[in-house]
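Troubleshooting log. The previous structure file for this entry was overwritten by mistake, so regenerating from the original sequence record. Sequence copied from the archived sheet and checked twice against the printout by T.R.
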Amino acid sequence: MSTPSDSPAPTVDQEALRLVAVRIATEAAEHLRGLPRPWESGGAAGSVATKSTPTDVVTASDTAVETLVRERLAALRPADAVVGEEHGGSAGVDPERVVWVVDPIDGTVNFLYGLPWYAISVAATRAGQTLAGAVVEPDSGRVWSAALGLGATCDGRPLAASGATDPALSLLGTGFAYDGTRRARQAGMVAALLPRVRDVRRTGSAALDLCAVAAGWTDGYLEHGCSWWDWAAAALVAREAGAVVRTPGVAGLAPPDDGLGADALLAAAPGVADALAELAREAGAASV
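Regenerated output below.
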């Protein structure tokens, strides 16, 4: 497992893209804070729907936030494309065009129940590679951001992955799919990992799990089945903080053939990254 080191051709200003991502994600968080809260209204009729399964929810706030983000991007970056969780969109591997990848609320189930672990994720990509991104937590107000080759910050403070070197003493984040059959396989993998790491945490937001690795709050994170918008911004935050990051293939690009499973998402402190990847393989990651 390795961290990509090649930078894109210098045809865009990555720092400028980061500032746009921060601006829009921050505005979206403020907008979300002013919308009705599902946990206070008891999930009023019409405010909550489902997608792939009855447990895969989408709220009226998800669609409202994505609409706002798209409007702001159209105003600030009219030549760019947008791919979002709720309103869709498509983007091929175009080496010249910037594609914005948006998750209006990552951690919607947490948001639905009033738990604070949810975030807005906005990323600028090109040819499947993230150039810049921002993750904003509406509840805490934290702003995580990164630009390719320029580092990562939280509220302006530089981030650095942990110095962990022993996988047995590593704190590992994870998550579970909405499909019950796959969730059972994931549970089996986690059960195999538990005796071999310090402990496992599950927050319910892939973006915030990746940011936790970037901050050194956890030593690693492994999940299968996440979509591009879940990790497009936060994976760059983790990578720019020094973590080793392995993502699924996107925009027509093939995933790594490394025995972790085609849609595995793994981020870890550099001192334990290879060991945690091997533990995941031994725990059956490829068959999850």
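The helical segments are 14-33, 38-41, 60-76, 108-113, 180-193, 206-215, 228-240, 273-282. Archived copy saved in two places this time.
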